[in-house]
């Protein structure tokens, strides 16, 4: 069984195409073709379809003769891309949420809105105090009550 890289190299040599010519048709670099032929990397699925058309090889033959190595590599790449995409969406939403919260706090501060300012963690707290005198003067008022005849009531 021949590997994917060997199949690409053998078919390219049968068709008398240089690595540079094949790379130009695929819009990639010559070094990428070399890495494929040396089994260091594998082409992605889109490029593999175009490559099979250019080299007149069936995809079935390209993929099955390599004992599932290429298929496993591609499925791993797809899973990693999906994980990266999920992470990117979550981090984007989190960034949007934080930006919205900071915008709301800034807007509340500029409008001097006490309801929003109450929850703004960036506003400094100001504590004040008053010093009471050591002795507070008190006035004692004495009231005198009298009844209807003018007698003092205690």
From TrEMBL:
Q: In this protein, which residues make up the domain named HTH cro/C1-type?
A: 8-62
Supply the SUPFAM superfamilies for this chain: lambda repressor-like DNA-binding domains (SSF47413)
Indicate the transmembrane segments per the record.
87-108
Annotated keywords: DNA-binding, Membrane, Transmembrane, Transmembrane helix
Database matches in InterPro entries: Cro/C1-type_HTH, Lambda_DNA-bd_dom_sf
Q: Which domain of life is it from?
A: Bacteria
One GO MF term: DNA binding
What protein name applies here? Transcriptional regulator, XRE family
What species was this sequence derived from?
A: Lentilactobacillus kosonis
At the highest ranks, the source species' classification is: Bacteria, Bacillati, Bacillota, Bacilli, Lactobacillales
